[in-house]
Every structure is written in C-alpha cells, then in structure tokens.
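Memo to structure team: turn this sequence into structure tokens by end of day. - J.P.
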Amino acid sequence: MATITIDGKKYDLESLSDAGRAQVSSLQVVEKELNHLNSKIAMTQTARNAYASSLSGQLPKKAAKNAKHTVTIDKVEYLLSAFSDSAKSLLATLKMTDQKLEQLQNELAMTQTARNAYARNLQEELN
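Reply from structure team:
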C-alpha cells in the first residue's frame, strides 16, 4: 500500500480520487521548488556576505553630517564621491544581490502559500 505523509500524518494514496492524486503531484512539485528556493537563498546570501566583506575593506572615511550624495551602510553614511571605482562596483553588486534576495524571499513566501493550499485541499479530499 502506497502512502503519503502530509504534516506528519500518513494517508493511503490508493484511496485518492484523480483530483486528490493531482493535488499530491502538485504538492510534490511545490516541495521540490521550496528546497530549490532555499538553496538559492543560501547561495545568494553567501555571495552577498562575500561582496560585503570585500567592500568593508574599501570603505572611505565617514561623511560629514548633512553631506549630500551619501550612501548609508550599516547605519554609517559615506560620501559617494569618495568611493573608488572598485568600491562603487562592489556597492552596485551588493545592491543587486540584496534585490535578488528580496525577490527570492518573495518567491519563497508565494511558494509556501501554494504548498499550504495544496496540503489543505488534499486534506479535505482525504477527510
């Protein structure tokens, strides 16, 4: 007898309707996507940490109060014009990486919502 475990509870797959089996299939796809997204988030966070570490060694002196055209990093303001070209490049890459992390976290939240809906639908089918 083939079974599936959902949120810690085992169910008999043979007793499922076609719609129920479709929910199981969708649930398996979404679980795989959740694992994939979590891996991508970890990889992107690792890259972000490396960029931030490289940038930290190239930061200019702090900007004077009320200076214009500043960049704030870890609550410290720096004058943008004081950055080297290399530091500006790292800063742009860091910003892009932060945007990618936000996008991935949004995708993760959306995929988790879908997972919960599939599980709920399947549980209704089983009850």
